[in-house]
Amino acid sequence: MITVALIGNPNVGKTELFNRLTGLKQHVGNWPGVTVEKKTGKCTYKGEELEIVDLPGTYSLTTHAIDELIARDYIVKEKPDVVVDIVDGTNLERNLYLTLLLLELEANVLVALNQWDMVKERGIDIEVDKLSEFLGVPIVTTVAPTGDGIEKLKEVVVKAAKGKEKRRKVVLGYGDDIEALIKKVENEISKDMNLSSTYPSRWLAIKVLEKDDEVLKMIEDSPYKNEIMEMVR
Amino acid sequence: MSAVLGEDPEVILAERRYGAIAKILETAVTKTDEKKWTFTDMLDHVFLHRALGIPIFLALLWAVFQFTFAFSEPFMVMIGIFFGWLGGLAEAGIANPHLASFVAGGLCDGLGSVLVFVPPIFMLFLALAILEDSGYLARAAFVMDRIMYKLGLHGRSFIPMMCGFGCNIPAIMATRSIENEKDRMITILVNPLISCGARLPVYVLISGVIFGSSYLAGTAVFSMYVLGIALAIIMALIFRRTLFRGKPAPFVLELPRYQVPTVKSTLLHMWERGKWFLIRAGTIIFAVVIVIWFLSVHPWAATEGGEIIEASYVAGLGHFIEPIFAPFGWDWIAGVAIIFGFLAKEVVVATYGMLLGTGEEAVGDALVSMGVFTPLTGFAFMAFVLIYIPCVATIGAIWRETNSVKWPLFTMAYLTALAFIVSGLIIGIGHLLGFA
Amino acid sequence: MTDFDIGKGKMIGIYALVLGIVYLAFGIIEVFGGAGDIIPGDLFGGFALAVIAATYLNGVNGLFNGKHQGLSFLIGGLFLSTVFGVLYLLLMGADGLMYLLGEAEEFSVLAGFRPAIWLFFLSLPLAYQARALTRKVTW
Fold it and tell me: Distances from the Cα of B317 to the Cαs of A189, B311, B427, C4, C32, in angstroms?
């Protein structure tokens, strides 16, 4: 069984896409310990069973809001086989922010470029292949209300889960000054076998620089806490 | 490190990310023609205009209330006639005097007087649904945010507050979307000042009584909502300066495209909210009505089967607390209505319906002829009902959402105090200006 | 581009200008208590009329120059005209119903037919023009 997580900004058509994929085979519950709704569903594609989780719609993955924390925790801890990032084609600048964050998490990302019909109507010309190359992830264009692209999406999801999709690990550079800092912190973090085998060390380093609450808590328990914190003083 | 990352590392890193995105988009995306203006852009140019935005919002809000009040009047009358007829039948036709009194006095006068307000409540929810589904509500939030930010408040609070116009409970639950804990607390504490649907019957009743003609009455109702908003803003300001110091978090709001709301989905939204009113009517209000009816017809002998209200238990209760409200020019029935209104604000209307022993929309006429309220005392009464303790269900929601007992208690205390202060001010200023 | 022909713009602009002034006039009259039976006093109603006037008037300049900003205000104004026109029509209907139910002593069609209503009818030709100009505009 392949686990698929759906994520994206609010109002991009994620719910519609989720409904198209799962049809009536949905189950609505709560994320444990909180009052945020959790939707899961199943879908089959050419004999492969896909279990789909609809993560809360967010703009970012910080610890400031419970929605974002839930989405982030799910991806980091449950490590779904594929993360489908639903992007609104008419609003790329804002939507791609989340995509970059997902790439930093080193999740197995696949972008569903939704509202493709509106993109065409507004005369926006997106070179999907180029975009796919720059981001290093497969991109499928979709129109949720009509269901265009859904079959192709399922196909690419299965391929991506099996590692058969062309993927390039893209490292987003923050500029020399910040990269230098990241490198320093990352070096200390990679000494902690426990941490660096569970989470991507670069991601941890960036979070430490951002003073991320959750990550700082994890560092507190690390034997290398002092060395790590020394780097950011 | 702070040399590189500055005070707020998150911001710098975010900026760099956007920089990278911009570079990517430059090469992969081209907009073939100049940004075409869509209807959404055009309407936003007007609705979000620096100067026009807020007046337009106020005008539309007023239109909503005129629609709610004046347009539903004839329908209210029709429902009232129905219950009046039913009550008459009961009195004449039912042999058992207790049962007859219950059906005529409790059900028709009490519950009926609340059901009379089904039309305005549903009209209000219909209007809200239209505003929301068309996409305009987001613009209203944005426009109000400009002022709110200048006052040190958080614009994101506006949306839960708009929800509050329907019912305070989902509004308080909607504050979960506010990330900053302090902003969230302020929004919760201030939410009860937004007039919920349950208060509408009270406003409609009283303003109908004191102002008669539709246009003035509709305006009086509108002014209650405005008063609520104003107080909410003031209290939020006070809280921010005292209990919850700090800067509000920046406000990012999604402005969806405008669209013509579909009939089906709008009616569905209206029904979803409106049905809560009917459910409350069928349960809480019904239960309270039974209690009040019982207290108003017993001791049975003394009241001669409910005819002489003055001899009943409820009258005893009313006279006991009368001194508290006398300075405001309110009689004992008002006092009783306020007490029972704690359970559900619609009960204020039900109480009047039963204790005046008349059919529901005739309650208005009865109040007029009895001269119970002058425009000034009536207006102050409406303000009191607006402000004082929200219904018990709302307190419950506050308790749940804040996970503590102290906040609901605090809310009850400050709202009661505020209610007395504001009503007092209204009466005081009114007297100074020469009103009775 | 939704900018448009200046010739047409001038025509529409003049109409909008006049309509805006008329709205403003009635708005002010209503705010200050009305005039006789035909124009009842109505504080907030008058305020609303004034707001509509401001919207139209703001667009006049843009319309004269054939710029799409002018068109925005026109559309906004038309929207508001419609909302308030329909609102008062409904209110008139409600008054009529009240009369039929025996609750109101009289029903004066003249008084019910508020300025907002016939001003709305007057704005309809503008709506027709606006429609023509925005044929290609998406939501």
Answer: 72, 11, 25, 73, 47
Contact between chains at A96 and B24 (C-beta distance less than 8 A): yes
Whether the upstream peptide bond of residue B97 has omega within 30° of 0, thus cis, is no
Q: What is the DSSP string of B306-345?
A: TT-GGGSHHHHHHHHHHHHHGGGT--HHHHHHHHHHTT-T
- For B37-80, how does the pLDDT look when each residue is reduced to its tens digit (9 = 90+)? 778 888 888 898 888 888 999 899 888 877 877 788 788 888 88
Contact residues on chain C for B71, CB-CB shorter than 8 A? 90-91, 93-94
CA–CA dist A190, A228 (Å, integer): 10
ipTM of the complex: 0.89
Structure tokens at A146: 């009509």
Q: Is residue B394 a contact partner of residue B172, using CB atoms and an 8 Å limit?
A: yes
Residues of chain A with pLDDT under 50: none
Residues of C with CB under 8 A from a CB of B: 1-2, 40, 42-45, 47-48, 51-52, 54-55, 58, 68-69, 71-73, 75-77, 79-80, 83-84, 87, 90-91, 93-95, 97-98, 101, 103, 134, 137-139
User: What is d(CA B141, CA B144) in angstroms, rounded to the nearest whole number?
Assistant: 5
Distance from CA of C123 to the nearest CA of B (A): 17
Spatial neighbors of B429 by CB under 8 A, at least 6 apart, are none
Q: With beta carbons less than 8 A apart as the criterion, state whether A140 and A156 touch.
A: yes
Distance (Å, whole) CA A150 – CA C135:
32
B392 vs C: CB within 8 A: no
Please give the domain boundaries of chain A with CATH numbers for all domains: 2-162 (3.40.50.300), 176-231 (no CATH)
Asked if A126's CB is within 8 angstroms of B28's CB, the reply is: yes
Contact residues on chain B for C98, CB-CB shorter than 8 A: 73-74, 77
Specify the amino acid at residue A123. Answer: G
Determine the Cα–Cα distance for residues C70 and A134; give it in Å rounded to an integer.
41
